Amino acid sequence: MLNVDLHCHSTASDGALSPEEMATIAKTNNVDIWSLTDHDVLSGQEAAMSKAKEYGINFITGVEISTVWGGRTLHIVGLNFDHNNELILKGLEGIRKGRATRARDIASRFDSIGITGTFEGAMRYADKEENLSRTHFARHLVNTGVCSQMQEVFDRYLTVGKPAYVAGNWATLEEAVTWITESGGIAVIVHPGRYKYTTEEYVNLFNEFKDLGGRAIEVVTGSHFPSQYEEYAFVAKKYGFLASCGSDYHGLEKNSMMLGEVPPLPKGLDPVWEHF
Ligand code: AMP
Ligand code: MN
Ligand code: MN
Ligand code: MN
After folding, report:
1. Cβ atoms 163, 113 nearer than 8 A
2. What is the 75 CA–ligand 3 centroid distance (Å)?
């Protein structure tokens, strides 16, 4: 059986390891088909691709696009697209501009509750301002002893309703799916079980995504509880979605599921990688 991991992050976005280091883990763990899906950025693709080639791993281009749908953040992964396509490059650039300003806003919120220096602190873990994410702030607060774990930073400060939460200026679902499909790729709703939509909203989301040309959902992922694998296998069959899987590995500190150690898909699904 093939070892497939189509969702993970490097230092190009909010992962802790470089694209090359990620490729090396993929090799060590015998990954056959691998995609690096950094948030809103393609700068790690070439390095990942060439290292994967050296290792004989089948590399699939990837990206995880931040969108807002139904008033909540929704992540759409693009797989197997042309990473030099102007439309997707320009679209992602727009999202990243918003990340830089949002990071300043997050830092001023921390300032106002007496936790200073967080912008500079977060920047120590990011390659550019435009790639700053909540993860970088969380890493800084753990490493300076304000919190003991990443999860605690999110729970106390960085989630909706908490003092340092600032909504992102993300793409629409339509934009993300269009960028992916126009550049030749397959759009995937990732970790569908993580959003707090109502049952009715989920139905609307799946239908709208399908109408826009979205083709797949992530069924098995480190961002799902194992009990959700069967739940989303059922959804995939019901809506005729292809099934994807990926660890969502972010590097050493957050290893709920290791790169290349993704459990098999439930039976009876149509794997997305058979359509690349
Ligand atoms: P951002 O795109 O800047 O809003 O940051 C979102 C990232 O933060 C996600 O991709 C996760 O890597 C991380 N994240 C979000 N929620 C949590 C959480 N509750 N605990 C730990 N990490 C989280
Ligand atoms: Mn992330
Ligand atoms: Mn995500
Ligand atoms: Mn992810």
Report:
1. yes
2. 5
